Amino acid sequence: MSGCSKRCKLGFVKFAQTVFKLITGTLSKDIAWWYYQYQRDKIEDELEMTMVCHRPEGLEQLEAQTNFTKRELQVLYRGFKNECPSGVVNEETFKQIYAQFFPHGDASMYAHYLFHAFDTTQTGSVKFEDFVTALSILLRGTVHEKLRWTFNLYDINKDGYINKEEMMDIVKAIYDMMGKYTYPVLKEDTPRQHVDVFFQKMDKNKDGIVTLDEFLESCQEDDNIMRSLQLFQNVM
């Protein structure tokens, strides 16, 4: 697999890693391995960038809409097309990608939630434009952009609020995905504890739901969360 193809796949996985850090304040043991692999692949990509001959349609528009250069977009598109020749990713393919990177757990439910966060137009497929826009937010977006994207992921039913049931579903899905590599070792009530802590911190008026404004305010007051948002700031 070429370096740019690996980078495309790992782009999807970055979201899972960052959200896990955001919720639990810890990192899975896989991240050190992932970061080493990613840095190694960057060297391959730098060589490939001089040889990219496929130019995505609307490249100038994507460059204007994201924080990537033309050359970076070309590399990302080449990897995307290599993994997804049809030019789109459906949910089943999305799940297969996550299963490869989390073989010791069950990533299907988390991949389901993440897929629908990527699929902003709710068409049942993720195009390159969807992928690169989201990746741009995670890697090079402002703090508000990153937090808004994360809030949208947690807000499963898209009603503009996060309730405890939604948060529990997300936390359980993340732990299922991490499998035996969760640290500290998962206890039966750990997901509920994380959800309770989340709401104690985020639900400012104690009405049982977290609004976007509450989420933004609480996250920006938390140094650990702010550090987690910087985790992949400079990896490209």
CATH third-tier fold name of the largest domain? Recoverin, domain 1
CATH architecture annotation name of the largest domain: Orthogonal Bundle
Global geometry: globular
Rg? 18 Å
**Number of domain modules:** 2
Q: Count the helices. How many? A: 12
> How many E strands?
4
Average per-residue pLDDT, rounded, comes to 76
CATH class of the largest domain: Mainly Alpha
Largest sheet: 2 strands, antiparallel
- Low-pLDDT segments: 22-36, 43-55
Helix content: 55-70%
Subcellular location: Cell membrane
Family: Belongs to the recoverin family.
Domain EF-hand: 106-141, 142-177, 190-225
Protein name: Kv channel-interacting protein 1 isoform X1
Brief synopsis:
Helix content is 65%, strand content 4%. It contains twelve helices and four strands, in the order ααααβααβααβααβαα.
Describe what you observe in this structure.
The chain starts with a helix and ends in a 7-residue tail after the last helix. It is 65% helix and 4% strand. With 236 residues, it is mainly α. The chain has 12 helices and 4 strands; from the N terminus they run ααααβααβααβααβαα. Helix 6 (108-118) packs across helix 9 (164-178) and helix 8 crosses helix 11. The strands form 2 sheets. Strands 1-2 form a two-stranded antiparallel ribbon. The protein is globular. The chain folds into 2 domains: 4-22 and 56-139, EF-hand (Recoverin, domain 1, Orthogonal Bundle), CATH 1.10.238; 142-235, Recoverin, domain 1 (Orthogonal Bundle), CATH 1.10.238.
